[in-house]
Design goal:
The protein is α/β, with parallel strands linked by helices. The protein folds into 2 domains: 198 residues, 2-Layer Sandwich (Cytochrome Bc1 Complex, Chain A, domain 1); 273 residues, Metalloenzyme, LuxS/M16 peptidase-like (Cytochrome Bc1 Complex, Chain A, domain 1, 2-Layer Sandwich). Helix content is 45%, strand content 16%. The protein has 20 helices and 11 strands. The chain has a 6-stranded mixed sheet. A 5-stranded mixed sheet has the order 1-5-2-4-3, sandwiched between helices. Helix 10 crosses helix 17 and helix 11 packs antiparallel against helix 13. The longest helix is centred in the N-terminal third of the chain and has 21 residues. The N terminus is likely disordered.
């Protein structure tokens, strides 16, 4: 009896000594690799920010990877790593925050203590805080409006889609809320939302069992605070086509983003059927897609036109879908890269001196008409087979190295899948044309959309009037361009110019008044 009792006591002591939650670890061992990659994924993101301190999660991650750690200044850390060709960083999105570390195998022993300090012993000092918060404040006050009208229109569309919910704001916050963030707020937020109870670990490359065990044991030392996962808000349902025109001085053209709620994500097999249709009509950076062919290739209106069925981060720079930005709250969208405004056309071509508005209304009509035709007619057998074959090959390029492969594996777990890219190939293979055309009609429509157009102040009112009044919007070609077009294209132009859109509201917003 005494032996039994002592054994039970020992088991109880052991049980309570163990962490309450075992941290999930995603492994991708590659014995021939010349590097080791470490990743951490926290279930927090900008939706974990307090309402009056939007941008706090971003600021916390930024000072962890952009500041001192373990009593070593940031500049000294960078100097120490330089000979190793090692690096680390962080990325915050709406629902997750990610940290990534990469080092050649030869230097992993020297590098690992730096990793440990960044994650477990960030300095959170006043000097780093002042430097990084100045940069964050400058971004929300100036850079987001000035650097890229294409990104500007995308972020403004999300503001419309999620207005009133925790998915609305920029991950960096707003002009007002960033001012509210203190260093003490960052220290408290680190302990509250960067915990061992809401983290997933990842490791890839050529690593030893000993290194894996050390990594797991050390990350158990993250803050032990209990964490309640924040539920993301869902996209609003628009009433007709709701347009917000952002009037900005001296724009390059009219940048257009439009979208609507989408009820499915990668977690749903039906997503793969819609993926095939989306690739055909608007695959990112692919000249074969329908929108690209109609708007850029045939009419030379802009640099490209694409569509999406999930968030696509840094579309202006990324050629392939990036890992590390999984979302459960979804929408689909169309990106029409900047088209010319009236004053540009007037200045370039004598024959267009009397043009009143540029190409935005025509391009928007053209894009929605193409979606309506796809919804009505569906994909043909040939279009379906060619696109499916392309995607089965193209998706194998998404993850080309240990870091990308590990990132996609960790994203898979977010969606309740084991290895999304492997599953994707099998799902694509078995998807039928009937399933694709059914998904198109179930999830896409153009009667109710949110639209953001960033355009020049000189164009804003005329464009607003044209949209709300459903005015004819004939395409304005330079003579040299028009002379090379076929009669079929010009006839189609007349149909597009008169194509009816369900525009119910148009608002003009001064650029200075956004993201406040």
């Amino acid at each position: 009896m005494r032996l039994f009792r002592n054994t039970m006591i020992s088991l109880l002591v052991l049980t309570f000594a163990l962490p309450l939650f075992a941290i999930e670890v995603v492994e991708h061992r590659q014995p021939q690799a010349n590097k080791v990659v470490f990743m951490l994924r926290f279930d927090n993101g900008s939706i974990a920010d307090p309402a009056d301190k939007k941008g706090l999660t971003y600021a916390t991650a930024a000072i962890m990877t952009g500041g001192g750690a373990g009593a070593m200044e940031y500049a000294d850390i960078q100097r120490k790593m330089k000979p190793w060709a090692a690096f680390y960083g962080s990325g915050v999105d709406k629902q997750v925050s990610s940290f990534f570390f990469q080092v050649p195998v030869d230097f992993v022993g020297e590098f690992y203590p730096l990793l440990k300090n960044v994650l477990l012993s960030p300095d959170f000092n006043e000097k780093d805080f002042a430097r990084l918060m100045k940069s964050q404040q400058n971004y929300v006050d100036q850079v987001v409006r000035a650097s890229s009208d294409e990104d500007y229109s995308k972020f403004a569309l999300e503001d419309q889609l999620f207005r009133g919910g925790n998915m609305q704001s920029l991950i960096q916050g707003t002009s007002a809320t960033v001012k509210n963030i203190s260093l003490d707020d960052i220290k408290a937020h680190y302990n509250k939302v960067f915990t061992r109870n809401n983290v997933m670990l990842g490791i890839a490359g050529n690593y030893s069992d000993e290194l894996l065990q050390r990594f797991k044991a050390d990350m158990e030392k993250l803050p032990a605070t209990a964490y309640t996962k924040v539920k993301p808000s869902v996209a609003r349902s628009p009433n007709g086509i709701e347009v917000e025109i952002i009037a900005k001085d001296n724009t390059f053209g009219s940048a257009i983003f439009t979208g609507a709620p989408l009820a499915i994500t990668r977690a749903d097999d039906e997503f793969i059927a819609l993926m095939i249709a989306n690739s055909w009509i608007g695959e990112h950076r692919k000249s074969y897609s329908r929108l690209y062919q109609k708007i850029r290739e045939t009419r030379s209106m802009n640099y490209g036109d694409y569509s999406y069925i999930e968030w696509y981060s840094n579309g202006g720079r990324n050629q392939l879908p990036p890992a590390g930005v999984p979302r459960a709250s979804n929408y689909w969208s169309i990106w029409i890269r900047p088209v010319q405004i009236a004053k540009q056309l007037q200045a370039q071509y004598e024959e267009l001196a009397d043009v009143k508005i540029g190409h935005a209304h025509f391009a928007f009509r053209l894009a929605l008409r193409e979606f309506d035709l796809l919804i009505k007619n569906g994909m043909s057998v040939d279009e379906f087979e060619a696109t499916k074959t392309f995607l089965r090959s193209y998706s194998k390029l998404y993850a080309q190295g240990p870091a990308q492969q590990l990132g996609w594996l960790m994203d898979s777990r977010f969606y309740g899948r084991n290895d999304y890219l492997k599953e994707l190939d099998a799902l694509l293979e078995k998807t039928t044309l009937a399933e694709v055309n059914s998904a198109i009609r179930k999830h896409w429509q153009t009667k109710n959309m949110f639209v953001t157009i960033v355009t020049d102040t000189s164009e804003a009112q005329a464009l607003a009037d044209s949209l709300i009044n459903n005015t004819l919007s004939p395409m304005s070609y330079a003579n040299v361009v028009k002379s090379g077009l076929s009669e079929d294209v010009l006839t189609e132009d007349d149909e597009i110019a008169a194509y009816p859109l369900n525009v119910k509201s148009v608002k003009i917003i001064k650029s200075a008044d956004t993201f406040k």
